[in-house]
């Protein structure tokens, strides 16, 4: 049995690493494709090292480009690999251009597609990620949902129940597997930070970085918050470029600490010890919840609605309708409902492996019947 895994952005490295380990335990042959969607040292290489991933079998080196160009490159180059490898299934993760490009390449070659993290919806089609999710889900033969709510959305869209399996969230597996290693991080000491004495912020989504007004509101809010608590801001390359383009003068003086993107283990350490996490990242929202840290999401909506319902997450859109700095500061010390765990038991990788091997076995039986 041979499967091809397609990934290319740093959250996908985390997910793929856990599933790859499980495939090795189950003696499933895996061919790994890194599309190169995130291609610099701080956004990819450090993650691969920290997660102890074996070197991917293929690096497509697609680099940065418009959505159309990047997706086209991924589709073209992935197709070449799939024709050569002839796998029994192709696995894609999340909602990036690597996800939709990999799923399109496989579907056009009539190779079964497995979507890990299926069924998420923001109901905002201006988000490229939302379009990627919808297309990938409706191309997939096996949809692995992280929660009951995600599975229900798929059924509401007419996807057959037989294609949907609830496996839990692979990011929860990752947090549990790496938390002890994250304790060894020295980043807090190097930044002179105290436990629960700072706010952690990340911003990278196009809706925030590409809109000068939204970006300006975010920077102003973080500057205000830093008057009360230090703000640690690992700056995504897209955000840094956008701030420079917009002429926003942001420095690391005072208690607004602009730092380069950090590795997975340092990020877990920053999240675990923060008073509040403020982010537009879906993965960071979940990690904050897994670590019991209140989160303020800098968007108009979120795919992870369960966390808002449970009180662990609050939406603070940078559209001028709310006081973002006030919402961040008021979240200090807040806790959501206790005992809420909508994303499984930390065994998603095992369930993913079992579901994939079951799909491949069924496909093989069907071929033999023919």
Describe what you observe in this structure:
The protein has helices at residues 10-25, 41-50, 67-85, 97-108, 128-139, 148-156, 170-182, 187-190, 206-209, 212-225, 237-246, 264-273, 282-290, 305-309, 324-330, 348-369, and strands spanning 2-7, 29-34, 58-59, 89-93, 113-116, 142-145, 164-166, 199-202, 231-234, 256-259, 276-279, 295-297, 313-315. By secondary structure, the protein is of the alpha/beta class. It folds into 2 domains: 2-169 and 344-369, Glycogen Phosphorylase B (Rossmann fold), CATH 3.40.50.2000; 178-330, Rossmann fold (3-Layer(aba) Sandwich).
Strand content: 5-15%
CATH class division of the largest domain? Alpha Beta
Largest sheet: number of strands, sense, barrel closure = 7 strands, parallel
Please tell me what the overall shape is.
globular
**CATH fold type of the largest domain:** Rossmann fold
Strand count: 13
* CA radius of gyration: 20 Å
- Total tally of structural domains: 2
Order of helices and strands: EHEHEHEHEHEHEHHEHHEHEHEHEHEHH
- The protein's oligomeric status is single chain
Order of strands in the sheet with the most strands? 3-2-1-4-5-6-7
Low-confidence stretches: none
Mean pLDDT: 92
State the secondary-structure class. Answer: alpha/beta
